[in-house]
Every structure is written in C-alpha cells, then in structure tokens.
User: Which sequence fits this backbone?
C-alpha cells in the first residue's frame, strides 16, 4: 500500500501547537519549517524562530530542541534575549511576542504600528529596538513590555539593525544604511551607492565608529566605515554562483570585534577574523541541487560558538570558530516517495541518495546505506523483504533483506527514472525522462525498453499496476497498458505528479 506523504514538506496544516493538528511532524524533528533566525544567550540557551509561528528552544547547546507554543501562525523573523528569562520575538503583521519565563509562555505585546518586523536588538537589559517595513523603528526601555515609534527618516524597508550600546547603532535595508548616536532620536542616511534591488541583509555596529554591512548583491559585498560614516569602503565578497544560481547573503553576526559570519541562501558560510576586511568561504553545506532558503540566519558568540539556521528547521553549529560545523536540528533533505509494507514498516527516499526506514509507524526513522549520491525518486516493495528504488542517471537499487543492504542494478541507461512498480518478485516496470519505459521479468537482472504509442521526449512517472496486465503512468503524458506493459497507449496530455487506482 503506497502512501505518497512527502514528510519534508507537510506544512499546510501545521500549527504552532502540534498536538492540536491532525498532521504532525515525524521527520525531521522537532519540525521542518523554515527558520529565519537563531539567538543564543550563552553556549547552552538559545531560541530559533521561523515560518508559521515556529519557536524552538534549547538549553543544551542544541543537543535537544523543544517546540514552544507561540500562539500564532504568523511568520516570525527574529528573536533576541533581554535576560536569560526575557526574550522578544517579532514578525509579520506587527507581531511582537514576549516571554518572561524562558519560553514556557509567550504573550503578545501591542505594537504601535502594523507592519512586518525583521529584526530586534537589545544592547542593554532594558533598552531594545525593532525595525521593519516602511522604515519603522520601535524602541523599548522596559524590557519589551511596551514599545514606541521613532522617526527613521526613511519609508523604505529596514531589514536589520544593531547597537553597540543604547545610544550608538546602525540599520540597513533596501539600498541604504542609517546611523544614530542618540538612541534613535535622529538617524543619518549614509551617502552610498547601491545597485537596484540591493539590500543590506546584515549589519554590525562593532564599536562606536566601526560599522560593517553585508549586502545581498549578486556576488555579495561588504560596506564598512571606521570613522562613524565619514568614509566607507566597499569590498566584493566574490561569492560564486551555486549551480548557476545566486547565493544571496541573508544575515551576518559578529561574536566579537574581529570575528564574524555571514549566512547565504544556498549554503555558503563566510567568515572574517579581521573585522570584515577579508572573508573566507566555507562550502561545507553547499547543496548540489538548487535549494532556496537553505540558510537564513546566523548568530555568533564570543566563545567561538556560532549557529546557522534555515530551511527544514535546520540548525548547524560550530564550536571551534567555524573550523567545522555539525547539524543540531533538522538536517532536512527533500523526500520524494514513501512505501509502507505494513502499518509499522515503511521506507522513504529522496535527494542525495537518502533512504530512511521506520519500524514503529514513523515515530523514528533510521538511515540506510544507498551507496549513491544520486537523487532517489520512487520506492516500491513486492514483499516485506524485496524492494526496489529508482532515481537519477538510471539508478535502480534492490534489496532482498528489508533494506539492510541495497545492490545496484544495471539498466544500461542514463535517463532520470521517476517511477517503479513490481507486480511480483520478478516482473517490474520503471519509467522516466525522454519517455523511457523499461520492463524486467527476472527481478531486475535485465531490462527491456517498452513501446509507447503517441508520446515522445517527455518525462514519465510514477507508474502503477492494478493487475499483471493493467497499468497506468502519470507525468507529462498519461499512458495505459492492458498487456503487462508490452505496449503503452497515450491517453492524454498530463502534468500529473502522482497516480493511484483502486482497481482496473
């Protein structure tokens, strides 16, 4: 019984209170929503926030993360500590949330304006600032219990702000940087040139005179002043395209006056050890396929600890000043197909050769060794032990022991395969790009090209048989066979991504 539940993207009915939803996360845990920001109070205590009101908390340095009840499904863009117990989270729709008990409860705080807030910063225990759409800047002097609006001097979106102390700070956004030296009472717009649509995505007020701004230009760039804005230098970060796609700068954080990190959209991490004058590029988490929003936020501590968050509720951490990184939450890889052999035992396959197995109805998932980094697109089991997987570049895998071992079969093609189905332990069909249809009658030892009428050069998959003779294929075209796949007839133009029949 085939169940196409894409575990990595079930978000449509997700709420911040998982127990109240008819769907709940099984993989990855504690969830899989995009995280926009992470902040740590010390090496152990931290929050991360993101899509649909997601707040997760750790008190173990990321070894374990627990979901917090935010009481909202609006996106949360940023979080910041005032003390170990008091924190503020901000986001869409003028959302300001406050906890005074370390995240056990989050209460809504009234905002004087309704806009999307992008960042919150507390330079002191009592004094904090929020920035957002329309050039809005809010300020609190009572640990976030109440907020009042400042005049920023711009109506363009403010994406980031950072204060050295309660008086001296900087902000950045759509093609501008602003500075203040009097607690936000007045702001000075800097005379800088930007390319159209460039944004300052992260900013650091390192000391009273030094400001570093990270810009999401095509290759990334750094704007820096060491004299309070009198002069600025602009440095190209030189971030290369990632498989033809721009790896946009998303956030920047300094742990001390010299060491800072930049998180980029497609997996790049940049690091400086000389206050932003020079940057080195870490490619540890670069994906080999296009994955927007893989990284989004970064937070650095003076102790050499840094955390980066992004898609799939992923959190990665370094404890050695960026020399190496490890995943503490999420680690999502897109999953393409599931197959359950009974109520408890199931398999899920996906990108980069991932095979996961559960024997307890999905409560836990164990990785299996596929011995490939190709994307795996479909999985089908004939018995509890015998199963098949197809994937990119003509990959076909087979197991005869419930996934303990997977062997590579030779289909003698390099087309991407998107669907596979067996009617018995010997007879199976796999389909894919360029209208490719292959059939085996000896358990995958040999594969023969099948004839399809009326279709050519299209992507096919998945495939299902309701009996040894009757089968159907979805994809760019819909096909049907009534003789076990020896011949296929095109029914109509498709565009389908899944197909299921209960009988012929």
Assistant:
């Amino acid at each position: 019984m085939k169940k196409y539940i894409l575990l990595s993207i079930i978000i449509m009915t997700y709420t911040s209170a998982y127990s109240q939803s008819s769907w709940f996360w099984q993989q990855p845990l504690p969830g899989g929503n995009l995280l926009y920001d992470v902040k740590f109070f010390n090496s152990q205590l931290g929050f991360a926030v993101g899509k649909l009101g997601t707040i997760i908390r750790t008190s173990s340095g990321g070894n374990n993360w627990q979901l917090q009840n935010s009481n909202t499904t609006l996106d949360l863009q940023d979080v910041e500590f005032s003390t170990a117990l008091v924190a503020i989270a901000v986001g869409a729709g003028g959302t300001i949330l406050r906890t005074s008990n370390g995240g056990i409860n989050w209460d809504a705080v009234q905002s004087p304006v309704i806009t999307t807030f992008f960042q919150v910063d507390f330079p002191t225990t009592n004094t904090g600032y929020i920035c957002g759409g329309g050039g809005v800047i809010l300020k609190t002097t009572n640990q976030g219990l109440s907020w009042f609006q400042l005049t920023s001097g711009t109506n363009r979106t403010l994406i980031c702000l950072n204060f050295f102390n309660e008086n001296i700070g900087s902000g950045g956004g759509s093609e501008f940087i602003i500075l203040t030296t009097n607690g936000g009472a007045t702001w000075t717009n800097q005379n800088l040139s930007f390319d159209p649509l460039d944004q300052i995505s992260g900013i650091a007020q390192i000391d009273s005179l030094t400001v570093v701004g990270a810009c999401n230009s095509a290759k990334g760039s750094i704007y820096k002043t060491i004299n309070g804005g009198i002069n600025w230098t602009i440095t190209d970060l030189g971030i290369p395209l990632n498989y033809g796609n721009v790896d946009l700068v998303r956030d920047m954080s300094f742990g001390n006056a010299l060491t800072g990190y930049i998180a980029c959209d497609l997996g790049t991490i940049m690091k400086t050890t000389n206050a932003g004058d020079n940057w080195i590029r870490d490619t540890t988490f670069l994906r080999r396929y296009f994955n927007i929003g893989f990284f989004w936020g970064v937070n650095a501590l003076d102790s050499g600890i840094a955390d980066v968050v992004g898609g799939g509720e992923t959190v990665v951490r370094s404890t050695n000043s960026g020399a190496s990184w490890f995943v503490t939450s999420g680690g999502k890889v897109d999953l393409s197909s599931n197959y359950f052999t009974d109520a408890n035992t199931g398999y899920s396959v996906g990108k980069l050769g991932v095979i996961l197995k559960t024997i307890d109805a999905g409560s836990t998932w164990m990785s299996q060794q596929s011995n490939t980094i190709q994307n795996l697109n479909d999985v089908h089991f004939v018995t509890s032990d015998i199963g098949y997987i197809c994937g990119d570049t003509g990959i076909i895998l087979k197991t005869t022991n419930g996934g303990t071992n997977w062997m590579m079969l030779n289909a003698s093609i390099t087309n991407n395969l998107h669907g596979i189905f067996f009617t018995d332990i010997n007879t199976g069909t796999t389909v894919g790009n360029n209208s490719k249809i292959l059939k085996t009658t000896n358990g995958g030892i040999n594969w023969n090209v099948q004839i399809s009428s009326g279709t050519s050069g299209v992507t096919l998959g998945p495939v299902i048989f309701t009996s040894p003779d009757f089968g159907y294929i979805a994809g760019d075209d819909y096909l049907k066979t009534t003789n076990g796949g020896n011949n296929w007839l095109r029914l109509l133009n498709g565009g389908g991504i899944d197909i299921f029949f209960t009988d012929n």
The mean pLDDT is 92. Residues 167 and 183 are 4 Å apart (CA to CA).
